[in-house]
Amino acid sequence: MDAIFNVLKPPQMTSHDVIGFLRRVLNTKKIGHGGTLDPDAAGVLPVFAGSATRLLEFAVEGRKEYIAEFTLGAQTVTGDDSGEVVKTMPVPAFGKQELEAVLAQFTGKQLQLPPMYSAIKINGKKLYQLARQGVEVERTARPIEIYKLELLHYTANSFTVRVACSKGTYIRVLGEDLATALGTCGTMSFLLRTQVGAYTIDKACTLQEIAENPEACAAEPLTAVAELPKLKVNARQAARITNGVRTTVAQTADGRYVLLGPGDEFLGIVRCEQERLQAEKILEHYPMPEE
Questions:
Q1: Over its length of 291 residues, how does the chain's per-residue pLDDT go in tens digits?
Q2: Which CATH number does the domain 3-62+198-224 belong to among 3.30.2350.10, 3.20.10.10, 3.40.1190.20, 3.40.50.300?
Q3: Does the domain made of 64-196 have the CATH classification 3.30.2350.10?
Q4: Choice among 38, 40, 177, 254 that is catalytic
Q5: 40 catalytic, yes or no?
Q6: Which of 7, 98, 111, 280 could, after both became Cys, cross-link 94 (CB 3.0–4.6 A)?
Q7: Cα(130)–Cα(137) distance, rounded to whole angstroms?
Q8: Strand 121-122 vs strand 255-260: parallel, antiparallel, or unpaired?
Q9: How much is the pTM?
């Protein structure tokens, strides 16, 4: 099956476990997910099957949204409440105004240092593997962007926010940084991912729903790139482009496009430079029409 599944990942299950489950349900080896979600977290996990896996990078690039709770006064080795507490501090009194002022400081483009407990690889080893061995290595801060940081609720020692962010953003680290800005320390105590690109939690399917009726839960591969402009070509152009031949299409602006065949078939993704199209990701090779 060539499709995308907007999975509602349950807590206490790794993203890898989800892939293993769906590999058996769909009876396919060609399957992958669009962005790891921590085992304790729940929410949207887009899973791509069949030829749709060629579009995985577009899901990873997409905007992400979360609802996260941070508990103040203690910091753990993992950045969430699954880890050992390594630091405690008193929590100063604060109100809504102070909290929102701190949130405003962390909105926009910034650099974020990835945590040791992450899947980032250094010299071929994942950081969390090194962390479990008690090894800490130097990491380089990475550019991220927080599009929105909205306060939903707060108590004397915790607060809940809605976060809209770019790829590569670690919500655990954001929570620690927010706690530091409030004059204390903290850890993430709840995480729900509500959106990845075009896939939102209100349209997500549970694993049981997918197992019972995969077709009803399957989304067309085109949904992964719905925001890209569409370019429809004729049969000869479709055949040339999908077979790797750079092809001129007059009056086409530079940029990336969804390539549609003459019957509106989704053929892949192309890039245009100076009216010449080059294939980036091809899902279907179009046959050369007979003379």
A1: 899 999 999 999 999 999 999 999 999 999 999 888 988 999 999 999 999 999 998 877 889 999 999 999 999 999 999 889 999 999 999 999 999 999 999 999 999 998 877 777 877 778 777 778 777 778 889 999 999 999 999 999 999 999 999 999 999 999 999 999 999 999 999 999 999 999 999 999 999 999 999 999 999 999 999 889 999 999 999 999 999 888 888 889 999 999 999 999 999 999 999 989 999 999 888 887 765
A2: 3.30.2350.10
A3: yes
A4: 38
A5: no
A6: 98
A7: 8
A8: unpaired
A9: 0.89
